[in-house]
């Protein structure tokens, strides 16, 4: 019909994805990483004390069941412990300490940027069922 507009509607959350059998769980994302970026996954999980020999149930419990919450709840004591153990080579005083710490943490925590990149890539691979809505003017 002439004059009709076609629109795509994307509904995110509230179980819509699961109701339509889309593979959008945190474990599905982990599987994607394991298949395409295993070195990244290993490094990422190590930051959360998850090791390759752990069984999947333990990995889910420690991180992947509630990824968002677990990413937000970083153990500050572990970070402080890491900082205290860094060899800063500051024999001449604290000159450059900020740069040294920045370099250390930028390298050590660069996985955060990669996580965002890989998440975007993964979302683009999810097969979705499209629904067409016709607007009546």
Question: What's the quick description here?
Answer:
With 137 residues, this protein is mainly alpha-helical.
Overview of this protein structure:
By secondary structure, the protein is mainly alpha-helical. The protein has one domain. It is built from eight helices and two strands. It is elongated, with a radius of gyration of 22 Å. The N and C termini lie close together (11 Å). The C terminus is likely disordered.
Please state roughly what percent of the residues sit in beta strands, choosing from under 5%, 5-15%, 15-25%, 25-35%, 35-45% or over 45%: 5-15%
Secondary-structure element string: EHHHHHHHHE
- The 3D shape can be described as elongated
Structural class: mainly alpha
The percentage helix is 40-55%
Mean pLDDT: 74
Number of strands: 2
Q: How many structural domains in the coordinates?
A: 1
What is the helix tally? 8
Roughly how many Å apart are the termini? 11 Å
Radius of gyration: 22 Å
The profile of the biggest β sheet is:
2 strands, antiparallel
Return residue spans where pLDDT drops below 50 for at least 5 consecutive residues.
129-137
Strand order of the largest sheet: 1-2
């Amino acid at each position: 019909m002439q004059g009709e507009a076609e629109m795509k509607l994307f509904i995110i959350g509230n179980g819509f994805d699961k109701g339509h059998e889309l593979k959008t769980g945190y474990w599905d994302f982990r599987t994607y990483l394991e298949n395409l970026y295993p070195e990244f996954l290993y490094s990422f999980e190590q930051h959360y004390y998850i090791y390759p020999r752990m069984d999947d149930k333990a990995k889910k419990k420690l991180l992947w069941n509630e990824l968002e919450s677990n990413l937000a709840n970083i153990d500050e004591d572990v970070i402080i412990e890491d900082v205290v153990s860094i060899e800063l080579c500051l024999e001449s005083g604290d000159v450059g300490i900020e740069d040294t710490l920045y370099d250390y943490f930028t390298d050590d925590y660069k996985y955060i940027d990669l996580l965002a990149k890989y998440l975007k890539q993964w979302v683009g691979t999810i097969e979705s069922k499209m629904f067409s809505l016709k607007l009546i003017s």
